[in-house]
Write the structure tokens for this entry.
Amino acid sequence: MVSSRFRAVVAPLAIVCSASLAHAAGGVVKLRNNDAQEASGGTWRLFMTISLAKPPSMPHVPMKFVFTETVRFERTLLDGSDEPQVRRVPVSTNTPIIEVVDVGFGDARGKVYKDSRYDLLINRERGFEAGEWKLQVKDGDGREVGAAINLVLKGDNEVVDRRSMNFTAKESSSKKKSREERAAAAAAAANAAEEQEIKADGPPPPFVDPASHGKIAEEDIKVKKGGCGCAVAPTEHLAGSPWALCAALAFVPFVRRRRTP
């Protein structure tokens, strides 16, 4: 008879094994190549064969492809080197990337098979990068299909600059050129502002009014020919002037001559 202690140890193990067998879907997943080269546009194409334990109940089965990054290929710039160096950086806290797609197991005649050849396209926009990944395939119920696969995605990641900063370094030619271009642009803007200043519209006005260059009334005085050399001024200018006194004195002898008896 089996002792009660033996049953107490074996029974839980049997339950765990039964649950594991129920959770596993069986089957095999095989990649054509366990390493893939990055194509243009930051994409990788994975060619694989998926074999289930038996043909599914429908021609298209929703499946999950779970990718977990384990090593990142880091391109690093270090002191003393102008070219980036590739380092293998372990990753342990990365969140898995899950791709859910429908995999076809049937043909055009409606016949369903247990094997399928499928190619999966992944890209950097979804978070993939060059490095080492672990791939797990699961069916629609979350049961694993086959064992986990170690996958290598080849390519060039972005460069990480880890060089120490040198504050005494001379200014680079590109920075110097940029500074000179900014100075030239500022000078051009100043010249443009000067050209836009208000300019005089036509020649400036004369310093002396042109109307003041005309003749005045005194310049029109007429001189009597054969006279005493005295100028004859207009009547309105004789009164109260030296010329009026001269004319009066000229008539004095005539007046006195007529008064003599």
About this structure: The helical segments are 4-23, 173-195, 242-259.
